[in-house]
Amino acid sequence: MILLYFSNSLNAQTSFQISDNQTGELLYRVIVSENDQFLGFSDLQGNFTDPKIRNSAVSYQFKLYGYRDSTIRIENPSNTLLEVKLQPTSKSLTTLVVSGTKYIQPLELQSVSIDVVKAEDLQRKITPDLARAAERLSGVNILDGQASIRGGSGYAFGAGSRVLLVVDNQPLVTADRNDIKWNYIPLELTDQIEVVKGASSVQYGASALNGVIHLRTMWPDSVAQTRVSTFGSVTPESNGPLAWWGKNLPYQAGVQFSHMFKTKNNIDVVLGGNGLKSTSWLNGEYEERVRMCFKVRKRFNKGKFAIGLDGNIMRQKSGFFLFWKNDSTDAFQPFSDGISLDFNDLWMNIDPWAIWFDKANNKHSLRTRYFGTYQVGSDNWQPATHIFNADYQYQADVFWNMSLLAGLSSNYFRFRDDALGGLHSGNFAGAFLQLDKSIGRFQVTAGWRYEIFRLDTFLTRSIPVQHYGVNFRASKNLFLRGSFAEGFRFPSPAERFVKYQIDIINIYPNPDLLPEQGWNAELGIKRKFVKDQWTAYIDLAAFVTSYDNMTEFSFGKWGKPNSPLFGAGFKSVNLTRALIGGLELSVFSEGKIKGHDLSIVGGYTYITPVDLSASDSLAKIGPFLKYAINSFNEVDASPNSPILRYRYRHMVKLNADLTLKNGISFGAGFRSYSFMEKIDTVLALIVPGLAKFRAENTGFSVIADLRVGYQFKSDHKISFHVLNFTNSFVTIRPAKPEAPRTFVLQISSTIRYRKKRNAN
Questions:
Q1: Is the same domain home to 13 and 131?
Q2: What is the 3-state secondary structure (H, E, C) of 347-360?
Q3: Do 181 and 43 share a domain, yes or no?
Q4: pLDDT (tens digit, 9 = 90+) per residue, 641-675?
Q5: The domain spanning residue 392 has which CATH number?
Q6: What is the rounded distance in angstroms from the CA atom of residue 68 to the CA atom of residue 82?
Q7: Where in the sequence is the domain holding 246, given as residue range(s)?
Q8: CA angle 328, 330, 335 (to 5 degrees)
Q9: How many structural domains is the chain composed of?
Q10: Is the peptide bond before 509 cis (omega within 30 degrees of 0)?
Q11: pLDDT, tens digit, 9 for 90 and up, residues 378-402
């Protein structure tokens, strides 16, 4: 939207008041730029004054997440207040993120590395759950549900996570295992996924030691719409004689929908649903699920007060494959009949919230959430977990034109699980403060947080943690950044108390497990490219992360000699100290070039993750850098290697999609992982064929996908995908093969109701 304003004065300082063109709501933190050069943000009253004195025509751009970009050209600047009204929409030509500072900002102004997945990208690719979407990003890999960003985590099946999942500004992890339920997340309502790489405990609290995956769901714009998508896949072949399924081919079938609209009395409604059924190429692994979700929002007094209620419920049955029977003809068969796991779950959350502005136009928000998980069909539906979250935040513009964000957060949890020692309860409480300021070409942020945690009678406190970041605009499209952040994580109850047996493999408790703490530092440079309706970023980051008392899931002799496997099994243990350093080059592109849509997301990550208890000399920067350089092309799989277990030192991810003007689209995806140099030695000896397979496959593992489609009138699309089209035999997680070549057909349709439902 482009508007022209004329005036008769020169040498003027122009001011604006920015509001929603439907509700009149004054809009806070609107990004104001001049010819794509950042000038500043609107304040809590929606006001912005150009800091420069103008004596000639100037074009201003106004951008805010959830609103259409607007441009105003002032032919003759004047000392007057001009009104700017923005149109709500889900489309923006600028990539805006909120996860780095909890304020909406352009991606290029962040002081930390953030990768973005937009709704359009989820629709182009087959994405049955959030894990599939996150796995495509550079530096991110997921092993049996355990997320790791830049090597920050290893392998810890179902027990804790250093990466925090946040959905609409609130954490969504379970009370007992503090893990992420990837298929529970409502991707059908997703507007944008933001992945923050590095310690984020100041902004988000415990469990954000390695980063944050922040998913933001959508609200309707002025036009109501319904979107439906369905897909089906088959896996007709395998590598050699591995196929065990005969005529009953492995398959996956799914459907999802969303419907959103506004009413005449300022009520916004969003509904969604998802259903999926699959039988895996891994014998015994399957999934059946049905999920429903909703969002309702009511706004009063021109947006100065709003209340809402969000909810999600899912019923799921699934089977889980742990290890193969051997590495050859039975690689798709389980280690034994008793080693597969079956689940019958009901998960639900309900989120009441309110946002309001006080008389001084300071912003307040109160968000609450109940999240419960239940084992259906068992005695009294046990195990069952319950967690209640509450988060209050206060935003104000304070002295020296700084933005203040302060908050209090707390939760209470309670669960019963015999595998975790019965009934447990606990809670945490925390407080944080963050300051942000624009100083010329600099964007500066600083924050502090403190938390207290209780589990049963065990009480512990976090160290006060801090975060500092700076972004410097060196030129119009070149940005330099640096950040330092501390983090912490309390061990999950599962890591402390789990006592479980899967066939002959025991998982042992460790009630003496200590909390983790650490820090992350990063230097980065981002180059932005803009041409008409196309935007691209190339980003290079150097990072280092240090952990004290790092928790690792370790396979060793923890039990008695008369126990299964002579006492060998898994247990969570503390490493005295670990250090991870590396480099990451990433690319991000979106928009139109000569009328054709082009999207590119990907990058290359190199890490050197070392256990300093195995080699304390590497704690010094000189020896560490020398080792990182000298070992770049080497594979060190010896038991005495200082490399941390279950890490990939090299990862390459790339996804590219091109949609021509005539609606025909082409796409390709590529993932490459270097050899996982170190795993538990005992595990390699116990699992049949694992040691042999690792000895014979020390190179890179590559998975490549292809897709082609056709779009009808921009609202309907049919596409055909070939996943792993080279039919490569790959094990991202040891002893668990990835899918062989799979064929997928996807159909999606969007219906827009041109009659506006909102009379305002």
A1: no
A2: EEEEEEEEEEECCC
A3: no
A4: 899 999 999 999 999 999 999 999 999 999 999 99
A5: 2.40.170.20
A6: 18
A7: 96-277+285-336+343-753
A8: 115
A9: 2
A10: no
A11: 666 667 899 999 999 999 988 887 8
